[in-house]
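Sequence, please.
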């Protein structure tokens, strides 16, 4: 039988079509594999980004902790450098401060041997002539305690009591009282204060601001101001310098945001912006008569630059809910056993 003629190259075209269809199927299979890889990579990327954000938050919190602990260490070093030998030092919060005042109020002396010495932040031990009434070594230790708020000495000539307190707020007048009880009125006045206090716990990228008000400072409202400030860079060279410039700009942006929130709180307690994690609506404040700053004090000074409200700086470490942080900073004091 004679071979049929393929005048139009049909068999050749069919072979090409079959080959192309096979290639298309292979490409589709490869495409599905690539889509699967891309999907897995996308999920890994999202996970990595989320993890990166978590790590940066942990690093920032660790940096905050380091800063506040460095402040606390500076206080301890300054005390130790003078060859001081306090029997003990203890940080005070509002509750422990109240307890100390309550317990001291129960002390009595029939022979009137109890001494209460109040010194303002600018006063000196040498302003009084204590003679033999108070032990010289006790006076020496008391004299070495540095505090812009002033300090208080409670002493018993029979050596039952010998302690000093740096109160949470400034002592308004220096005095020396000797009686059958300790003079606790200035400290009680602090515990019963009525004015509103603004608290600022400053750190780059995460600053807690709040108001302590009401009778005895029982009402606390607070919020966290957040901005994007990365933790410290470890690489050297130009990369590090570029990073530091970017971080400095981010910190300046954070300072501006905190100032905006503070102005809003001081004026009317209204809308605080989109970058704050609100834990409570800040109540309207008629008058704030004091600001207490903690955390990174150099940063806090930038945030509070230009304010006419008196500012107290405290080297104190605080963590927890925003309200707890502000209450801790505002009411922080220290007790020394001499």
């Amino acid at each position: 039988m004679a071979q049929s003629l393929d005048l139009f190259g049909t068999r050749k075209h069919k072979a090409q079509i079959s080959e192309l269809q096979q290639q298309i199927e292979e490409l589709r299979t490869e495409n599905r594999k690539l889509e699967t890889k891309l999907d897995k990579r996308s999920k890994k990327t999202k996970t990595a980004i989320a993890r990166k954000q978590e790590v940066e938050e942990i690093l920032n919190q660790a940096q905050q902790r380091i800063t506040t602990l460095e402040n606390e260490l500076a206080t301890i070093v300054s005390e130790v450098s003078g060859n001081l030998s306090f029997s003990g030092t203890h940080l005070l919060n509002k509750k422990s401060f109240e307890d100390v005042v309550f317990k001291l109020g129960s002390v009595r002396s029939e022979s009137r041997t109890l001494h209460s010495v109040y010194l303002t932040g600018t006063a000196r031990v040498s302003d009084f002539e204590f003679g033999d009434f108070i032990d010289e070594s006790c006076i020496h230790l008391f004299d070495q305690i540095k505090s812009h708020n002033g300090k208080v000495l409670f002493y018993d000539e029979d050596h039952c009591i010998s302690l000093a307190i740096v109160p949470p707020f400034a002592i308004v007048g220096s005095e020396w009282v000797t009686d059958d009880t300790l003079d606790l009125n200035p400290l009680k006045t602090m515990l019963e204060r009525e004015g509103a206090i603004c608290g600022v716990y400053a750190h780059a990228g995460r600053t807690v601001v709040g108001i302590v008000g009401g009778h005895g400072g029982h009402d606390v409202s607070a919020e966290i101001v957040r901005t994007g400030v990365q933790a410290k860079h470890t690489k050297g060279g130009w990369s590090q310098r570029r990073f530091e410039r970017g971080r400095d700009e981010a910190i300046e942006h954070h300072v501006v945001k905190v100032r905006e929130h503070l102005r809003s709180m001081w004026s009317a307690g209204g809308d605080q912006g989109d970058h704050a994690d609100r834990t409570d609506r800040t109540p309207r404040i008629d008058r704030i008569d004091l600001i207490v700053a903690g955390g990174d004090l150099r940063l806090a000074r930038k945030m509070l630059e230009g304010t006419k409200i008196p500012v107290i700086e405290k080297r104190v470490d605080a963590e927890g809910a925003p309200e707890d942080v502000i209450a801790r900073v505002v009411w922080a004091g220290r007790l020394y056993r001499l």
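The chain has two domains: 85-191, 196-329.
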